[in-house]
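Annex B. Sample input.
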Amino acid sequence: MAMQPQHWILVLVAGIFVIELLTGRHRKVHRPRDIAIMLSVIASSQITRVGMAWLTATVIGLLIPAGKGLLAGAPVWAGFIGLLLVAEFCQYWIHRWAHDSKRHPLLHGMHRTHHSAPYVNVTLMYRTNLVWPLIHSYTWCAALGLYLGMPAATAAFYLTIMAWNALTHSDWRWDDAIIARVPGGGRLTRAMELIFVTPRIHHTHHGYGKDGKTYRNFCTMLSFYDRLFGTLHVPEGRPWRYGLPGGEHHWARQLLYPLVPLGEAKRR
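Annex B, continued. Sample output.
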């Protein structure tokens, strides 16, 4: 039986996790509440995946009833590029709105779960609010691609975007390695960053203080949307601190908001 795309992502994340573990990147990093959030997300996703598939298929079928299989004859490369461009554009704006606590407090409350950890490594892939997949554009774009009759393009899109997400969350900074060890690595990395997000671009999005910009760098893979809309920040080094300044809400409330109120943030 062929592996599903999400299983390949689990394999990649596990591989990166082992590399981080062997190089000491997880030593004295994770707190009990961090582990509780990640294990809850991993366990619940096995249950909610079926419900999400049913919900997205039903909603998309109601919105475009004549679209089923409409693009079945499209080339795989065209479907892949189309899904990637649309998903990243939508995610850029959803992600940007989720960092505006005044105008979009509901989105902000859900997304802050991902940012409340005082570290960045590949485990952040599974540090999310349980309701957030309902908002995520990749969920809906993948469902749309399948509905339109592009299973191969959809699988390629989903694997690519989630793999890139894992690589840019990793505490193993491969862009730093290119800059330090490859002749002309700095120029090569800057050229790459004209189009693609690198770990340093995404890490600064999780930080605050010097070279920390939580209100910049909203794309997952395609940095040119941030460049286009004026929110790109390429840092000089690592952020002064990771996470969110101030207090942190109870881990279960972070998981379940807005089904339960966040309550008061407490300093620990």
